[in-house]
Amino acid sequence: MIALSDVTKRYPGGHEALKNATLNVAPGEMVFLMGHSGAGKSTLLKLMAGIERPTRGAVVVNGQNVGTLRARALPYLRRNLGLVFQDHKLLFDRSVFDNVMLPLDILGYDRRDAARRARAALDKVGLLKHEKALPITLSGGEQQRLCIARAVVHRPAILLADEPTGNLDPAYAAEIGELFRAFNQVGATVVIATHDMNLADNLAPRLIMVASGRIGADTPAVAP
Amino acid sequence: MRSWISQQGRALRGTIWKLLRAPFATLFNVVVLGIALALPAVLYVGLVNLQKAAQAASPEPQLTIFLALEASRADVQQIEARLTAHKAIAKTRHVPREQALEDMKRASGMATVAEALGQNPLPDAFVVDPRDVSPAALERLRAELAALPKVAHVQLDTEWAQRLDAVLKLGRLALLLLATLLAFALVAITFNTIRLQILTQRDEIEVATLIGATPAFIRRPFLYYGALLGLFGGLAAAGLVWLARHVLNGALADLSYLYGARWQLDYLTRVDTVSLLIFAAALGWMGAGLSVARHLAEARPR
Fold it and tell me: In this predicted structure, what is the pLDDT of residue A204?
């Protein structure tokens, strides 16, 4: 589903965020990229989402080589992805409901069908009763859940999450972990970059260590 | 196809909502565009009315031939014969100098002047209807008749109409220049407005791009915004022209009453109004398109 082969990413200015990274993620897998901040986890996710292009090597997502993808094909690659951002990237000038509607609008869903799906996604993350609220009135955990609802509302094949439990207390973090597990159980490939060991212990996914831009130990998932 | 139409509809609805959400900013923009468009529109209406008045005032062009005072009766008859036989002349009417004097006496206020004159100062005259009324043919005929013996002066009574025509031509040129300048202004205004829009919607553009929006999807609302702004500006301009005409017609009614006539200014025709609106909307769209092409890349991640 996702394959990086011998990928190096050097940012302008010479900083090498990734060095000769090779990584394969099978369809339906749940993978945690573990490591300190600055280790290269976010760069890995950005390469997978086509936000950055590799300096060397190939990044293949869903059968498409992201590095050589034409700019006009990029939106269609991203429609197969659900992105969860550490800073949420919610739109604060529109309601919770309209935030979740955005991906469906972009995909051109029929309005009524879209509204039904948006409500289902909000229900799943427990925010349906806040659908008319503005995101600014939500707590940090609720904002993160809203971001997840927006990422999964169009049922993407791949979910990429960057520090989804970044600054949440453990109870919220566990809740959010359950959401990822549920989404993974219905067949989605889930890649999460985090340094939250509790989350990893709860979900027992495949763990890939990332340190100073290099891929380290790769521990397979613990069968439940 | 259906989804394409529904996406257009959604972008349009979203844009209208965006315009209504900032009513004052929208209103000021529309007024500025309206004034910019109203200036050439008013000039256009003025020209059209002037042209119409000119046409109404000059029916068929005629030539008036004044003979020299010393022309004898025989000379007059000879010239009349030549004129009647002339191929380029449809009708000839002789105004004998005695009759001209009678006419002058009948004209109000001139009787005493005519009485005071010892002898008749007026020459024999012919009024001629030419067959070909094109300016070149008229000019040729005038020159030819002026060369006849005993002819003192040939007056082409379309001369003032020709002068007016030249003035109108100048007016149309000025209109074209003004319209071009203000079209640039309109494009510049929408360009800047859309630039601000793009800046304030950076987040939305970024998120939409990350979620998989095509550039067309992101561009669309801005283009609609520009076009709608242009359209409303056009409507405002049409309204301003209507208002100006309304006010002037009131004053003109008073004035024309004093002259015992009834003058009315025409408004923009329906075709003119629709063209104005389409033109304004197209310019708004163009300004938005230029702005989007210029500024979107800055606001968008890759």
Answer: 82
Residue matched to tokens 């990332």 = A210
Kindly report the nearest CA distance between residue A195 and chain B, in angstroms.
24
* Residue carrying structure tokens 């809740």: A175
Other CB atoms closer than 10 Å to residue B195's CB: what's the count? 20
| B115-134: average pLDDT | 80
Is residue B289 within 8 Å of residue B238, measured between CB atoms?
A: no
Residue range A139-152: mean pLDDT, rounded: 91
Asked whether the beta carbons of residue A106 and residue B212 sit closer than 8 angstroms, the reply is yes
Q: Burial letters for B283-294: b for 16+ Cβ neighbours within 10 Å, e otherwise?
A: bbbbbbbbbbee
- B257 pLDDT above the threshold of 90: no
pTM: 0.74
Q: Work out the end-to-end distance of chain A between its first and last CA atoms, rounded to an integer number of angstroms.
A: 23
Q: Is the dihedral of CA B177, B179, B184, B189 positive or negative?
A: positive
**Of residues A147, A217, A199, A214, the one with CA closest to residue A30:** A199
Cβ B7–A107 below 8 Å, yes or no?
Answer: no
> Could you tell me which of B121, B198, B211 has the C-alpha nearest to residue A82?
B211
Instruction: For residues B180 and B40, give the distance between their C-alpha atoms in angstroms, rounded to a whole number.
Output: 9
State the best of A59, A91, A109, A148 to mutate against chain B, taking most chain B CBs within 10 Å: A91
> What value of ipTM does the predicted structure carry?
0.88
Using alpha carbons, list the distances in angstroms from residue A162 to A32, A49, A68, A191, B202.
10, 11, 24, 9, 21
Which residues between 142 and 181 in chain A have a beta carbon less than 8 angstroms from any beta carbon of chain B?
150
In chain B the domains, ranked by start, together with CATH numbers, are 2-57+162-299 (no CATH), 63-157 (3.30.70.3040)
Residue B162 has pLDDT above 80, yes or no: no
Tell me: the pLDDT tens digits for B212-233?
A: 898 888 999 999 999 999 999 9
Query: Which of A173, A170, A171, A169 has the alpha carbon at shortest distance from A161?
Result: A173
Reported as type and span, the H/E element at residue A193 is strand A189-194
Query: β-pairing, A81-84 with A56-61?
Result: unpaired
Kind plus residue range of the DSSP H or E element containing A210:
strand A206-211
Q: DSSP readout, B64-83?
A: EEEEPTT--HHHHHHHHHHH
Q: Could you tell me the CA-to-CA distances from B109 to A3, A107, A170, B114, B119 in Å, in that order?
A: 107, 87, 110, 10, 18
User: What pLDDT shows up at residue B58?
Assistant: 61
Confidence at residue B301, expressed as pLDDT on a 0 to 100 scale: 55
Give the amino acid at B255: L
Whether B49 and chain A come into contact, CB under 8 Å, resolves to: no
